[in-house]
Specification:
Elements lengths: L4 E6 L8 E6 L7 E10 L2 H8 L2 H6 L9 E9 L11 E4 L2 E2 L5 H4 L10 E2 L11 E5 L3 E3 L6 H4 L2 H11 L8 E5 L3 H12 L4 E6 L2 H9 L4 E4 L5 H7 L6 E6 L4 H10 E9 L11 H6 L3 E4 L5 H12 L8 E6 L3 H10 L4 E5 L4
Parallel strand pairs: 10-11, 10-13, 11-12, 13-14, 14-15, 16-17
Antiparallel strand pairs: 1-2, 3-4, 3-8, 3-17, 4-5, 5-9, 6-7
Bound molecules: zinc ion (2 copies).
The site of one zinc ion has 6 residues, from helix 5.
């Protein structure tokens, strides 16, 4: 039988860049689901793979299809799969977990010790078709805008980070105005925070954050955060901190502007270790929570927040056909972009 082929964006060289290639449509095994991809979004992780950083060399193999933010419809159900139908609108949890470690048993799949990343450790979604285990398939209400659903994976990171703490009436500092930081700002306002302040060094991204309704978008390269806190009547410091930048300078500023007893969730992975005075954390009673991936329940919260009025369209800055993926990566690598959505519905 002749192998069916499809278009896919692959890591084609042991070096910088990505290429569009013809690769086999994945075979659907028992318990698996084949998804026809409609829209995908480019993640910072994909840019790392494009740039071929040391981290990506350790995970991605040359020849592999990348991408993990997507929406599509079910094209085929493997043997034994129940609860889904062909043609159904779906996305998918990007971390394929072992199912039997202590964290998987308690529903904390985000902390599985043997997690495998779609589009990182195995073939991904920047293709006409993606095959994943049925337990990772997430049903999506067809009424939701596919451009927004295409980046639910990233929205999930933001949801997990922001909703780690009670937000009603709290003052929140977000360090890092990348797409996830900007989405988190929208979530915090939606969830009832009093003031939401976001910091970055990139004016384009701070402008996007303003469109998401932040109370202040601060360029810490030239503005004084404490002055802005004063203007916003944030007297004792921020109650909640969401660290999205991976930058030591940003994290230090966050620690120094938190209220005693404040709570910080950390999502931003940095290029190098950050120096930290533990005495600041101890004597001021701060709580630090590392965030990885998203909880399965976040998928429900995301759909319901959007249906409840959370508008994430301001974070979408570019839309391209998948054959123009290079333009999408150029936009992402320039730093002057929010989410970049690629369309896979037309040839
Ligand atoms: Zn991602
Ligand atoms: Zn596990």
């Amino acid at each position: 039988m002749e192998q069916k082929m499809m278009d896919a964006i692959i890591k084609h060289v042991d070096g910088e860049g990505l290429a569009l290639a013809r690769v086999p449509v994945p075979e659907v095994g028992p318990g698996e689901v084949l998804i026809r991809i409609h829209k995908t979004a480019i993640c910072g992780t994909d840019v790392h793979i494009y740039d071929w950083t040391d981290w990506s060399k350790a995970h991605v193999h040359v020849g592999q299809t990348i991408g993990h933010e997507y929406v599509g419809e079910i094209a085929e159900l493997g043997a034994g799969v129940t609860g889904f139908t062909v043609g159904q609108r779906v996305s998918g949890e990007g971390h394929i977990t072992c199912g039997h470690c202590r964290n998987c048993h308690t529903g904390n799949i985000q902390w599985c010790k043997d997690t495998v990343g779609v589009g990182v450790d195995r073939n991904g979604a920047f293709a006409e078709y993606l095959c994943i285990p049925a337990k990772n398939v997430i049903a999506i209400d067809p009424e939701l805008d596919e451009d927004v659903v295409s980046f639910f994976d990233a929205f999930g990171n933001a949801t997990h980070t922001a909703l780690m703490w009670d937000l009603i009436g709290e003052d929140v500092l977000i360090t890092g105005a990348g797409p996830i930081g900007i989405i988190a700002a929208g979530i915090c306002k939606f969830a009832g925070a009093r003031r939401v302040v976001i910091t970055d060094l990139n004016d384009y991204r701070l402008g996007l954050a303003r469109k998401m309704g932040v109370d202040a978008a601060v360029n810490t390269g030239r503005e004084d955060l404490r002055e802005i806190m004063h203007e916003l009547k944030i007297v004792e410091g921020f109650d909640i901190g969401l660290e999205m930048s991976g930058s030591g300078a940003a994290f230090k500023q966050m620690v120094s502007t938190m209220r005693n007893g404040g709570k910080i969730s950390l999502l931003g992975l940095g290029p190098k270790p950050i120096e930290l005075d533990m005495n600041d954390i101890i004597t001021r009673g701060l709580t630090l929570q590392g965030i990885y991936g998203r909880k399965m329940d976040n998928w429900h919260q995301m759909s319901y927040m959007v249906q409840g009025g959370l508008d994430l369209t301001p974070v979408i800055t570019h839309r391209f056909h998948y054959t123009d993926f290079q333009k999408g990566f150029d936009a992402m690598r320039s730093g002057n972009s929010g989410k970049v959505v690629l369309d896979w519905t037309k040839k």
